[in-house]
Design goal:
By secondary structure, the protein is of the alpha/beta class. It has one domain (9-302): TIM Barrel (Alpha-Beta Barrel), CATH 3.20.20. Helix content is 50%, strand content 12%. One of its GO terms (biological process) is methionine biosynthetic process. It holds the Pfam family MTHFR.
């Protein structure tokens, strides 16, 4: 169907490397993840000049050095409409065809400038406008625009129900699909899906899952996202006596969540890699996703010298 956008069935989220040394290890991870044939590799974004440059450099690496499709995160907080236009045009010129439209986290300083767009839905509308202006270079095709969704109430939101209305608004503004914030229990995703469908959200909602291999990471994630650590997972990670055991616990938890989400009708899987590709690869191996695992064994053999 002309203009239709297939939802990603498998995507990985990467942080742009902060220096050359980290870049080498991220590029190595990318090579290994590539062998699982993901639909997208998403690249996180932050509006500070240094972080923006790092995101753009990683996207450029993906486009020029790999066969992977980048999914460029873009945040509108603290940005002018004009600077966002320039970035979206730049993405299109680079060959990026997938954008995750986000507001971003508000500045710590309450007096800090929040930018021209208070909410992500305005960014979606801007992306659609720029897309129309570039219809010729897109050959009539469209950008795949994803958005964030929340199995737990967003920290600034008055209620979970309000978040569902916000998601509906994003759909009306032109979002093609949503990716969830991290969550730790199958019923979190199930509840989001049911509430969203009841409210009229019909876009695919992809579960965002993270294999966590340490309590420190779990707590750091909670601080970043506002999602409370699951006490059973926290206890298991704390009680484990070796890194290998913690790794196994994190992978097992992520696999169980993904299986439950697929049972609930999830149209794909987004793995937050935290740039720790080993956990994500183990999740994929255990899930035996069609099209992914067959090449994975070869990849491991090639990279491990087996
Ligand atoms: P919005 O949808 O705009 O919502 C923000 C808040 O405003 C919510 O509380 C919402 O309820 C409220 N709201 C929205 N619209 C209205 C309205 N019309 N009226 C009243 N209230 C409203 N952050 C980064 O900085 N970089 C990243 O790369 C990044 N990647 C992410 C990837 C995923 C998959 C997810 C789930 C999150 C990501 N984030 C990232 C975090 C995200 O930027 C934050 O969660 C941010 O606080 C909210 O972004 P949003 O796009 O959901 O905003």
């Amino acid at each position: 169907m002309p203009g239709s956008v297939a939802p990603p069935s498998l995507s990985y989220e990467l942080y742009p490397p902060v220096n050359r040394e980290v870049a080498e290890s991220v590029y190595h991870s990318i090579e290994q993840l590539a062998d699982t044939s993901p639909d997208y590799v998403s690249v996180t974004y932050s509006g500070t000049p240094a972080r923006r440059a790092q995101s753009l450099a990683l996207i450029e690496h993906l486009v020029t050095q790999t066969k992977l499709r980048p999914l460029a995160h873009l945040t509108c907080v603290g940005e002018s409409a004009q600077s966002l236009r320039v970035l979206i045009r730049h993405f299109i010129a680079l060959g990026v065809r997938g954008v995750l439209a986000l507001r971003g986290d508000l500045p710590q300083d309450p007096q800090g400038w929040r930018g021209e767009f208070p909410f992500a839905r305005y960014l979606i509308e801007l992306i659609r406008q720029v897309e129309d202006e570039h219809a010729a270079s897109l050959a009539g095709g469209r950008l795949g625009v994803g958005v964030a969704s929340y199995p737990h109430r967003h920290p600034e939101s008055p209620s979970f129900e309000h978040d569902i209305e916000v998601l509906l608004g994003k759909q009306r503004s032109g979002a093609d699909y949503a990716i969830t914030q991290v969550y730790f229990q199958p019923e979190d995703y199930r509840g989001l899906l049911a509430a969203a469908r009841r409210a009229g959200v019909c876009i695919p909602i992809i579960p965002g899952i993270i294999p966590l291999n340490s309590l420190r990471r779990l707590n750091r994630l909670a601080a970043l996202t506002g999602v409370q650590p699951d006490p059973i997972l926290a206890h298991a990670l704390q009680s484990a006596t070796s890194d290998a055991e913690r790794h196994r616990i994190g992978v097992r938890w992520a696999v169980d969540l993904a299986r439950a989400a697929f049972d609930d009708g999830a149209p794909g899987l987004h793995l937050y890699t935290f740039n720790d590709h080993r956990g994500s690869l183990d999740v994929i191996e255990q899930l035996q996703l069609p099209g992914a695992r067959s090449t994975l064994a070869q990849s491991w053999a090639a990279h491990s010298g087996a």
